[in-house]
Design brief:
Length: 333
């Protein structure tokens, strides 16, 4: 099957004075046309570095040292900066985590929106302005003409996030990367933004890579889920299977630590310890120091990614023991 995007064995390392940080280490997954894939994990798990690698925005001391990022069959890691600019914003667009810092504080909203349209679509300023106003209305911003003349600091967090979505959609991308699109927004605005993204998916068939640590957002939006821990994928399956039958102890911990509306608890369950130091990852499984089910092998040998059920992959020695029931796969190593 041909995928819209296919990432194979991606390694993005940062070469610091303290040592080499394997921020993304042997990561592989795919995204189909019109599909929403959620990339889930704690802060420091490598989610944002994965998205920046896709966009070609890794700066020194970071570097993609190995792997492929195939978009429509073309390897983005082999393209020049000029070739990447034609794809970035045009075919692949990104909504960044902090809209206030992502928007230029000294330029009006209209100028920032029109800029990318003029650059990629080769339109004059008048036509670009008309499209910009239409986009602002499309993402639910009232008084679009007045907002065009406003500066970012005059808008609320929810309005700025809608502007970022409008900018990302300005050139009709086939893949939209949304990095924590609802962070720091209150529950009402969060629901509105998610509803807006769902509406856009239905209307445009745009694929979305949704980066989040919020499993409530995952349940609402995703078709498939990729769980990351310490730079590696530890589980990968469809959203229904993940919540119904999580296999990796880390995934189970994430789900158990999420409050549920039908349960009464005096305190929430938490995952013991903290994310491993990326300069000194354990020799075996990177989750070993926090895992309540750790085996002897977990401390010495890194587990492989295995297919435990159809299209359900997990990186864990608990499942490698059942050799008759599983088969190793190289697709999501």
């Amino acid at each position: 099957m041909k995928y819209l995007m296919e990432i194979n064995y991606l390694k993005t390392y940062f070469f610091t004075e303290s040592g080499v940080v394997p921020a993304v280490d042997k990561v592989s997954f795919f995204i189909k046309e019109g599909e929403t894939v959620a990339l889930v994990g704690e802060s420091g798990s490598g989610k944002s570095v994965t998205s920046l690698s896709i966009m070609g925005l890794i700066d020194s001391p970071g570097k993609i040292v190995e792997g492929e990022i195939l978009f429509d069959g073309k390897d983005l890691t082999l393209l020049s900066e000029k070739e990447l600019r034609k794809i970035r914003g045009n075919d692949v667009a990104m909504i960044f985590q902090e809209p206030l810092t992502s928007l230029n504080p000294v330029l009006k909203i209209g100028d920032q929106l029109s800029e990318s349209i003029i650059l990629h679509q080769k339109m004059d300023k008048r036509k670009a302005r008309e499209i910009s106003i239409h986009l602002l209305r499309q993402v639910g911003i009232p008084r679009a003409e007045q907002i065009m003349e406003s500066y970012p600091h005059l808008l609320s967090g929810g309005m700025r996030q809608r502007v970022m979505i409008a900018m990302a959609l300005s050139c009709g991308p086939r893949l939209l990367i949304a990095d924590e699109p609802t962070t720091a927004l209150d529950a009402t605005i969060q629901a509105q933004i998610l509803q807006l993204l769902k509406k856009l998916i239905e209307e445009t068939n745009t694929s979305i890579l949704l980066i989040t640590h919020d499993l409530g957002v995952v349940a609402e939006m995703a078709d498939r889920v990729v769980v990351m821990y310490a730079g590696q994928i530890v589980e990968h399956t469809d959203v229904f299977t993940l919540f119904r039958d999580p296999k990796h102890p880390y995934t189970k911990g994430l789900i158990e630590s999420t409050p549920k509306i039908h349960e009464e608890k005096d305190e929430l369950t938490s995952i013991a310890g903290t994310v491993a130091n990326p300069l000194n990852y354990p020799t075996g499984c990177r989750f070993v120091d926090r895992c309540p089910f750790a085996l002897k092998e977990c401390s010495t040998n890194p587990p492989h990614m295995l297919e435990v059920n159809k299209d359900h992959y997990v990186r864990c020695w608990l499942h490698e023991e059942k050799e008759d029931d599983v088969r190793e796969t190289t697709k999501t190593t």
